[in-house]
Amino acid sequence: MTTGADRRPFIAGNWKMNLDHLQAIALVQKLAWTLKDAAYDPKGVEVAVFPPFTDLRSVQTLIDADRFDLAFGAQDLSPKDSGAYTGDISGAFLKALDCSYVLVGHSERRQGHGETDEVVNAKVLAAVRHGLVPVICVGETEAELEQHGTSAVPVAQTKAALAGVAAGTPVVVAYEPVWAIGTGKVATPETAQEVGAAIRAAIAEALTEEDAAATRILYGGSVKSGNIAGFLRQPDVDGALVGGASLDPTEFAGIARFPKHVGV
Ligand code: PGA
After folding, report:
1. Pocket flag, ligand 1, residue 230 (CB < 6 Å)
2. Would you say residue 46 lies in a domain?
3. 113: DSSP letter
4. Cα distance from N-terminal residue to C-terminal residue, the chain
């Protein structure tokens, strides 16, 4: 039986639409050196970056050539595998670039690109088909919070995203309250724990208890090196999805070194 202690904490940097491929190379180099100087132990924490599509080949080549202990993934993928879908990117292409992960259903995609739960589910299934681990983003707006309470929307989004996913499929779920993204407003660690526990129960329903115990659940929304420790002390928060602070390698490395703050 998997326990919380078996879940390797995951610190993921979502660069959004920032940094071209040259800037990406500079950031990844600085991040790797900063982590090395800080005696980062990749066995204790997994660190991943999610650059724009156009950076992925450069990031792949650099990480591979210099053997950096960093994982990487894309910020989105097409629900389709190939064909007449102008502008879309297949999961097959991401896999060919050695991406391990792909973000799916980020609130900026749900809100800015009209991605429904059905679209998010189709993208999760596409990721799984291509051997990518989907990082499924869920979270409520301020209005939904007032209307439905704390866990209802993230739980419903998690269940919808996992429809048709086979038991035993590795996934990551990131709880990101929309009102906390890029605003400097953070959820309290207690709220993140409450929602994390509810998401874990939803995974047990959609998949199995074993899957629920094995799945890493992240908190995202204005995470910084100064507030990461409170979240990671929670039993149902296994890492963070970091936006703005992931663009500063020193700050992001400070977040990735959270075991030092948490004392684990
Ligand atoms: P933020 O973004 O850390 O800038 O709030 C988080 C995210 O959107 O993943």
Report:
1. no
2. no
3. S
4. 21
DSSP count for the chain of H helices, then E strands: 12, 8
99 CA to middle of ligand 1, Å?
21
Bridge partners, 69 (sequence order): none
CA of 220 to the centre of ligand 1 (A): 6
Query: Residue 1 pLDDT more than 60?
Result: no
198: domain range? 148-250
**pLDDT in the model for residue 52:** 98
Residue 172's CATH number:
3.20.20.70
- Residue with the bigger pLDDT between 4 and 59: it is 59
Closest atom of ligand 1 to 174 CA is: 9
| Average pLDDT of every residue of the chain | 95
Instruction: Determine which helix (DSSP H) or strand (DSSP E) holds 256, and give its type and residue range.
Output: helix 249-256
Q: How far apart are CA 47 and CA 10, in angstroms?
A: 6
- How many folded domains does the chain comprise? 1
pLDDT, tens digit, 9 for 90 and up, residues 211-223: 999 999 999 999 9
- The full DSSP string for 60-100 is HHHHHHHT-S-EEEES---SSSSSS-TT---HHHHHHTT--
One-letter amino acid identity for 202? A
**Residue-wise pLDDT tens digits, 10-30:** 999 999 999 999 999 999 999
Return the structure tokens found at 200: 């874990």
Judge if the beta carbon of residue 157 lies within 6 A of ligand 1: no
Asked whether residue 239 is domain-assigned, the answer is yes
Give 119-155 pLDDT, tens digit per residue.
Answer: 999 999 999 999 999 999 999 999 999 999 999 999 9
